[in-house]
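[User]
If only I could read backbone structure tokens as easily as an amino acid sequence. I have put the entry right below:
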Amino acid sequence: MRYWWVNQNQTYRHEVRGGYLWSPKRKTNLAANPFYDFMREVAPGDVVFSFADTLIRAIGMAASHAYEAPKPLEFGQAGAYWDRIGWRLDMRFSELRLPIKPSAHMDVLKPLLPDRYAPLRANGAGLQNVYLTRVPDRLAAALVDLLGAQARDLVLGYRVADEAQVTSAIGLVEWEEHELSEVKADTTLPETDRQALVFARRGQGLFKKRVMNIEHACRITGVNREEHLRASHCKPWRDASNEERLDGENGLLLTPSVDHLFDRGFIAFEDTGQVIVSPVAHRESLLRMGIQPDSPPKVGIFSSGQRRFLQFHRDNVLLKSSFLEHL
């Protein structure tokens, strides 16, 4: 279990009641932002302290890993934000009966603030540029002590968060269904092209044939029987242009379980063929799927086209933040 802090001054009402967190992937100038990137390392069961209007008002329990999803409609004007893709986490929030103002307890909290990526200023004021950040265990323990019995029960699991059952990855499903409907409704595409794009979403059809001209077996398991393999997009179908959706170099042949790990960002590949394992991947599950988390395999070189698409996957799908490597 890890502990996190989210600043929700403008989004508290939507996110807490809606049962999620959402952030862009990057700043408006496309620069990397650690406080968005940290979303990639939250895991189910992690605890999130919700800070809004100078108070810690709620505690959330993560109910999913991060996944790509459009900006929620309720964040702004009417109409779908299909062109604003960020990170989303499904959450179970409980609002606190006795919220606290951290600035009133800085004699306790100040010595526990981390040197990097702290959630508060030394005087207890919130930091406007911080969305989500890691909370050290000692600081989390102090916050729980200050918040009292309700917080202790939530963190220790004695009490379940108030929200109803969470439907995981709903934003991702809606986005993919939207993209699929756009393809089906595009009358500028010949019928054969539309069908090829629809089949490509499932890793079948023309896309799979093109991938099989480059790849001959699952890079992880070595399985080479066509009926047991999917053509998995490196740049996901949902992110890709129609041309990229059918590009054979945008694909790898993977068995279904490995395809799932790759599509949801639990594993990725370096250009050298070295497998990258996400720090939030379930270790026992990886072992059962034939991947040693502590010594992941090296699976051979990739073409220049594949390397370009694999770079996109590492930057936009892999559940691993480079900013946490130095904490």
